[in-house]
Amino acid sequence: MVFVLKPRVSQEKIGLFIRKLEAEGYSTFISTGTEHTVVCLIGNTARIDVDAIVENNDIVEYGKRVTEPYKAVNRTVHPDDTLIQIGSVAIGQGFFQVISGPCSVESQEQVMEVAKSVKQSGASILRGGAFKPRTSPYAFRGLQETGIDFLVEARKETGLPIISEIMNHTQLPLFEEVDIIQIGARNMQNFDLLREVGRCKKPVLLKRGLCNTIEEFLLSAEHIMSEGNTQVILCERGIRTFETMTRNTLDLSAIPLLKQKSHLPVIVDPSHAAGIRSLVAPLSRAAIAVGADGLMIETHNNPAEALCDGAQSLDLIQFAELMTDLRQRVAFEGKKMA
Ligand code: PEP
Ligand code: MN
């Protein structure tokens, strides 16, 4: 971390500033230029609030981090890709997986039919929302515990591991049987929830918030990892921009950047990114081309009648066709798909 001091600051004030930093346990390195003095701070600066230091010390013009504030998720501390193992299904380190299923679990029949079909098409993990975060309080909010039970039944029948979204930590006991806990975009910065899932032994899929930067996304993953849970999968699902023709804007550049900055697997959700069925296939192809480790695609046995997100859901035939195409592209990228 470096602090650039204002021009013509007295040596006495510089000395005071440096002693204050050193008293907090940091080493300093001073570079004196013709106009400005630069104070470099050496040590673990993750806890430092750069803006507070600038505000509280009138000799400081600005401060800048030169190392990233996240440690556990950082590739520099863990150069190899992380592999996440869910039973016999592996994500990362060259293993590519497709998660598929309905936005919401609506009935036992619905989830069972979708599960059998997506498995047949090559999906390796079944998704389904039981607790739904809905913008309107009058929209369908999910079957709750019953929804989880239906997913568990579908796993028994198909063998597919299951993923579902948790909305708050009091629901954790209901997720005992769930293989991967999903933290949705709206909860990406629910730090209490991140801490609680960080204490679990289960893999966590963390979705990027609608309006969050890549650094904030990585820091949320850091919250989970700093509690001891190393099994985190990152999911880019589009961010809110000025564009209104799509539900969100898929930030494709986030995928290679996240993979450069972090060792965690990165998957893409083209369904929520676009909100439009016809964009799911091209965005899936784009995600593979930029290095994603997997996809999460919403599917429904009857999208026209879906209780949630029907417009972005593929029907079961469309999904099967897409998977045939994707399989070749994944192989072309040198990745292995179940
Ligand atoms: C979902 O996956 O069903 C969901 C609600 O996604 P997001 O949190 O990305 O909006
Ligand atoms: Mn959805």
Record field, number of beta strands: 15
Terminus-to-terminus distance? 44 Å
Shape: elongated
Which regions have little confidence, pLDDT < 50, spanning 5+ residues? none
Strand order of the largest sheet: 7-8-9-10-11-12-13-14
CATH topology (level 3) name of the largest domain:
TIM Barrel
CATH superfamily of the largest domain: Aldolase class I
Beta content comes to 15-25%
Could you give a short account of the major beta sheet?
8 strands, parallel, barrel
Share of residues in helices: 25-40%
Q: Could you tell me the radius of gyration in angstroms?
A: 23 Å
Give the number of helices: 10
Mean pLDDT: 95
Q: How do the SSEs run, as a string of H and E?
A: EHEEHEEEEHEHEEHEHEHEHHEHE
CATH architecture of the largest domain: Alpha-Beta Barrel
Bound molecules: phosphoenolpyruvate, manganese (II) ion
Content-based structural category = alpha/beta
Which CATH class of the largest domain?
Alpha Beta
Overall domain count: 2
